[in-house]
Amino acid sequence: MREEKSNNPSLPKEFKKKPAWLWPTIYVGFALLFVGMIWGYNALIGPDSEVADSKDPAVSGEDKVAVTTQNETMKFPFDEAMLDQMTILQDFYDIEASDETQENSLLVFNQSYETNSGVTISIEGEPFEVLAALSGTVKEVNEDKFLGDEIVLEHENGLLTRYRSVVEIQVKAGDIVRQGQALATAAENDFNATAGVHLQFEVLADGEAVSPHTYLAF
Fold it and tell me: Is the distance from CB of 128 to CB of 78 less than 8 angstroms?
């Protein structure tokens, strides 16, 4: 009697069932490879490519002021709500200005004349709060009873602003200030006594006095 052939003949060796641990091992291997690629990419690009957060110390302090100043437009050194009450008592001396303007740009003391290197600002002859025209660093705070105490701010764009004839100074050398921050209060001084309570506001570029009209629509 002929033996019947089995309906389930033996499979070739290459189709034999794989061990149960093989596929999980392959899966874990690919997962580790993927994680390694992500870690390597992050290590390659480094922190410099990340967007700076405002809380990051790398962009705090002077660096933040520098960035801010580059995008700022100079503002009046007083509350702009008082602009209608503001008067320029003596203007910046410009050799190309009219005779009348030049005459109004002379400071007189003991019958001697001196050209004005800024603008002399009065707000109805009353004391007013003096504000930083730009963000920057306090370069100097000088006390002078004759000329009037002054504050000099240094700005990232290469400008200096000077605020003279002030009292109740609220900052010191080295302080970082923001645009519009209160610096002091306008007062009188002996040198320009006829001006009464006023602010002597000056702008310097590369160490030379320039007209504040270049930056502000007085």
Answer: yes
